[in-house]
Amino acid sequence: MADKTEEDSAKKMVGTEISQDRFNRWEKAIEESNEITSKAQAIRVGVEQLLFSDDTNDGQNIDVEQVLSRLDSIEQDIAEVRGDVITTKKSIPDVEEIAEEVVWKRDKVAKQEKQEANPEKPYERDSRY
Q1: Concatenated DSSP letters for 11-53?
Q2: Phi and psi (nearest 5°) for 114?
Q3: d(CA 95, CA 108)
Q4: Residue-wise pLDDT tens for the chain (129 aa)?
Q5: What are phi and psi of 40, to 5 degrees?
Q6: In whole angstroms, what is the distance from residue 64 CA to residue 70 CA?
Q7: How far is 48 from 55, CA to CA, in rounded Å?
């Protein structure tokens, strides 16, 4: 095993959490890249380019991590809304169910009205129900 150099022992570990979607995108891009061989290398190169690039973004200061964090938050919100829509869609009756209920209630009211109009006749049960 090679001895650690003074430079290696002075290195610091930097970590961050990212969404699964971002992780998958990075992993795919690294697999397809001829220049970048690891996520760590991609992060180092990206940070160096962002912080020390001569390009000043036309004078605009962009907090990339804040933008990416906000995008992750929006992705989560969209996923939650999509789940709510699916749940709501399942709980709303369809046209056939509503029609069946209307017909059933209409028949029930008609029978009650008929019974009230002829109170001497006992209630006859309809064999259809």
Answers
A1: ---------HHHHHHHHHHHHH-SS--SHHHHHHHHHHHHHH-
A2: -65, -40
A3: 20
A4: 455 666 667 778 777 888 889 889 989 988 888 888 888 888 888 888 888 776 555 556 667 777 887 888 898 899 999 999 988 888 888 888 899 999 999 999 988 888 888 777 655 555 555
A5: -60, -45
A6: 10
A7: 12
* d(C-alpha 36, C-alpha 41), whole Å: 6
Q: How many helices (H) and strands (E) does the chain have?
A: 5, 0
Helix (H) or strand (E) holding 70: helix 64-91
Tokens standing for residue 61: 């200061």
